[in-house]
Amino acid sequence: MRTFIAIELPKAIKDSLALLEDRLKNSGADVKWVEPRNIHLTLKFLGEVDQQKLEKIAEAMQSIAGNKKTFHLRVSSVGAFPKMEFPRIIWVGINKGDNETKEIAEGLEEKLAKLGIPKENHPFSSHITIGRVKSTLNRDKLIQEFTAAEGMLKTGNLEFNVERITLFQSTLTPNGPVYNPLKTADLTTI
Prior knowledge:
The protein has a single domain (2-186), classed as Alpha-Beta Complex (Cyclic Phosphodiesterase, Chain: A). It is an alpha+beta fold. The protein has four helices and nine strands; from the N terminus they run E-H-E-E-H-E-E-H-E-H-E-E-E.
Protein backbone atom coordinates (compact mmCIF):
# COMPACT_ATOMS: atom_id res chain seq x y z
CA MET A 1 0.00 0.00 0.00
CA ARG A 2 1.11 3.57 -0.75
CA THR A 3 1.86 5.48 2.47
CA PHE A 4 3.34 8.62 3.99
CA ILE A 5 3.82 10.16 7.44
CA ALA A 6 2.56 13.68 8.02
CA ILE A 7 1.38 16.35 10.41
CA GLU A 8 -2.35 16.82 10.03
CA LEU A 9 -3.60 20.40 9.85
CA PRO A 10 -6.67 21.66 11.69
CA LYS A 11 -9.74 22.49 9.59
CA ALA A 12 -9.31 26.24 10.22
CA ILE A 13 -5.81 26.15 8.71
CA LYS A 14 -7.02 24.07 5.73
CA ASP A 15 -9.84 26.58 5.18
CA SER A 16 -7.36 29.48 5.19
CA LEU A 17 -5.12 27.67 2.73
CA ALA A 18 -8.15 26.99 0.50
CA LEU A 19 -8.73 30.77 0.38
CA LEU A 20 -5.07 31.23 -0.49
CA GLU A 21 -5.42 28.71 -3.33
CA ASP A 22 -8.51 30.61 -4.56
CA ARG A 23 -6.47 33.82 -4.66
CA LEU A 24 -3.69 32.14 -6.64
CA LYS A 25 -6.24 30.61 -9.03
CA ASN A 26 -7.05 34.18 -10.14
CA SER A 27 -3.84 34.01 -12.17
CA GLY A 28 -5.38 31.48 -14.56
CA ALA A 29 -2.17 29.44 -14.34
CA ASP A 30 -2.16 25.76 -15.27
CA VAL A 31 -1.89 24.31 -11.75
CA LYS A 32 -3.21 21.12 -10.18
CA TRP A 33 -4.30 22.38 -6.76
CA VAL A 34 -4.30 20.14 -3.68
CA GLU A 35 -7.85 19.57 -2.44
CA PRO A 36 -8.22 21.47 0.86
CA ARG A 37 -9.25 18.28 2.69
CA ASN A 38 -5.93 16.70 1.62
CA ILE A 39 -3.58 19.51 2.66
CA HIS A 40 -0.97 18.33 5.18
CA LEU A 41 2.73 18.68 6.03
CA THR A 42 4.57 15.58 4.80
CA LEU A 43 7.34 14.38 7.09
CA LYS A 44 8.28 11.28 5.07
CA PHE A 45 6.89 9.74 1.90
CA LEU A 46 7.24 5.97 2.24
CA GLY A 47 5.81 4.81 -1.07
CA GLU A 48 4.64 1.21 -1.33
CA VAL A 49 5.02 -0.75 1.92
CA ASP A 50 3.91 -4.24 2.93
CA GLN A 51 1.06 -4.57 5.39
CA GLN A 52 3.46 -6.54 7.63
CA LYS A 53 5.76 -3.52 7.93
CA LEU A 54 3.07 -1.21 9.34
CA GLU A 55 3.64 -2.19 12.98
CA LYS A 56 7.40 -1.62 12.68
CA ILE A 57 6.72 1.77 11.07
CA ALA A 58 4.29 2.63 13.89
CA GLU A 59 6.95 1.64 16.45
CA ALA A 60 9.51 3.85 14.73
CA MET A 61 7.02 6.74 14.68
CA GLN A 62 6.29 6.32 18.40
CA SER A 63 9.99 6.11 19.23
CA ILE A 64 10.57 9.50 17.59
CA ALA A 65 7.32 11.18 18.71
CA GLY A 66 7.65 9.96 22.29
CA ASN A 67 10.94 11.87 22.63
CA LYS A 68 9.59 15.16 21.24
CA LYS A 69 7.42 17.67 23.04
CA THR A 70 4.27 19.12 21.50
CA PHE A 71 5.02 22.41 19.75
CA HIS A 72 3.40 25.33 17.98
CA LEU A 73 3.55 25.54 14.21
CA ARG A 74 2.79 28.71 12.26
CA VAL A 75 2.18 28.96 8.51
CA SER A 76 3.99 32.08 7.30
CA SER A 77 4.99 32.30 3.64
CA VAL A 78 4.34 31.29 0.04
CA GLY A 79 7.07 29.86 -2.13
CA ALA A 80 7.87 27.57 -5.02
CA PHE A 81 10.33 24.84 -5.94
CA PRO A 82 12.76 24.98 -7.63
CA LYS A 83 12.43 28.78 -7.34
CA MET A 84 9.79 31.51 -7.53
CA GLU A 85 10.71 32.53 -11.09
CA PHE A 86 10.19 28.97 -12.36
CA PRO A 87 7.57 27.41 -10.10
CA ARG A 88 6.91 23.66 -10.35
CA ILE A 89 5.66 23.02 -6.81
CA ILE A 90 3.76 25.77 -4.95
CA TRP A 91 4.03 25.59 -1.18
CA VAL A 92 3.43 27.46 2.03
CA GLY A 93 6.24 27.55 4.53
CA ILE A 94 6.36 27.69 8.27
CA ASN A 95 8.43 29.86 10.54
CA LYS A 96 7.41 28.76 14.03
CA GLY A 97 7.94 25.02 14.52
CA ASP A 98 10.40 24.64 11.65
CA ASN A 99 13.23 23.23 13.79
CA GLU A 100 10.94 20.77 15.59
CA THR A 101 9.46 19.58 12.31
CA LYS A 102 12.93 19.04 10.83
CA GLU A 103 14.07 17.10 13.91
CA ILE A 104 11.07 14.77 13.66
CA ALA A 105 11.56 14.26 9.90
CA GLU A 106 15.28 13.58 10.32
CA GLY A 107 14.59 11.13 13.16
CA LEU A 108 12.04 9.29 11.01
CA GLU A 109 14.51 9.21 8.13
CA GLU A 110 17.11 7.42 10.30
CA LYS A 111 14.70 4.97 11.99
CA LEU A 112 12.89 4.04 8.78
CA ALA A 113 16.15 3.48 6.88
CA LYS A 114 16.80 0.62 9.32
CA LEU A 115 13.52 -0.92 8.11
CA GLY A 116 14.69 -0.81 4.50
CA ILE A 117 12.84 2.37 3.52
CA PRO A 118 15.22 4.42 1.34
CA LYS A 119 16.47 7.78 2.55
CA GLU A 120 15.61 10.94 0.63
CA ASN A 121 18.22 12.33 -1.77
CA HIS A 122 17.77 15.87 -0.50
CA PRO A 123 17.58 17.48 2.95
CA PHE A 124 14.14 17.88 4.51
CA SER A 125 12.44 21.25 4.01
CA SER A 126 9.39 22.11 6.14
CA HIS A 127 6.64 23.02 3.69
CA ILE A 128 3.03 22.30 2.81
CA THR A 129 2.44 21.59 -0.89
CA ILE A 130 -0.69 23.31 -2.21
CA GLY A 131 -0.21 23.00 -5.98
CA ARG A 132 1.79 21.53 -8.86
CA VAL A 133 2.37 23.66 -11.96
CA LYS A 134 1.58 21.70 -15.13
CA SER A 135 2.70 24.19 -17.82
CA THR A 136 3.98 27.76 -18.30
CA LEU A 137 0.49 29.11 -19.04
CA ASN A 138 0.05 32.44 -17.16
CA ARG A 139 3.17 31.74 -15.10
CA ASP A 140 3.98 35.48 -14.84
CA LYS A 141 0.50 36.22 -13.48
CA LEU A 142 0.90 33.41 -10.94
CA ILE A 143 4.23 34.87 -9.78
CA GLN A 144 2.54 38.28 -9.34
CA GLU A 145 -0.20 36.69 -7.24
CA PHE A 146 2.40 35.23 -4.83
CA THR A 147 2.95 38.65 -3.25
CA ALA A 148 -0.75 39.28 -2.67
CA ALA A 149 -1.21 35.75 -1.35
CA GLU A 150 1.66 36.18 1.10
CA GLY A 151 -0.20 39.15 2.61
CA MET A 152 -3.14 36.84 3.35
CA LEU A 153 -0.88 34.72 5.56
CA LYS A 154 0.16 37.72 7.64
CA THR A 155 -3.40 38.55 8.71
CA GLY A 156 -4.84 35.16 9.63
CA ASN A 157 -4.41 33.13 12.80
CA LEU A 158 -2.45 30.34 11.18
CA GLU A 159 -0.87 28.81 14.26
CA PHE A 160 -1.73 25.53 15.96
CA ASN A 161 -0.32 23.04 18.44
CA VAL A 162 1.21 19.89 16.92
CA GLU A 163 0.35 16.97 19.19
CA ARG A 164 0.87 13.90 16.96
CA ILE A 165 2.15 12.55 13.70
CA THR A 166 0.07 10.30 11.45
CA LEU A 167 0.76 7.45 9.04
CA PHE A 168 -1.59 7.72 6.06
CA GLN A 169 -2.55 5.36 3.31
CA SER A 170 -2.80 7.15 -0.03
CA THR A 171 -5.19 5.62 -2.55
CA LEU A 172 -5.03 7.10 -6.03
CA THR A 173 -8.43 7.48 -7.71
CA PRO A 174 -9.64 9.16 -10.92
CA ASN A 175 -11.00 11.98 -8.70
CA GLY A 176 -7.67 12.51 -6.92
CA PRO A 177 -5.97 10.85 -3.97
CA VAL A 178 -7.86 9.70 -0.89
CA TYR A 179 -5.93 9.76 2.39
CA ASN A 180 -6.87 7.43 5.25
CA PRO A 181 -5.13 7.61 8.63
CA LEU A 182 -3.72 4.23 9.67
CA LYS A 183 -1.64 4.94 12.81
CA THR A 184 -0.84 7.92 15.00
CA ALA A 185 2.01 8.61 17.39
CA ASP A 186 1.56 11.22 20.11
CA LEU A 187 4.21 13.73 21.02
CA THR A 188 4.90 14.10 24.72
CA THR A 189 3.22 16.84 26.77
CA ILE A 190 5.75 16.82 29.61
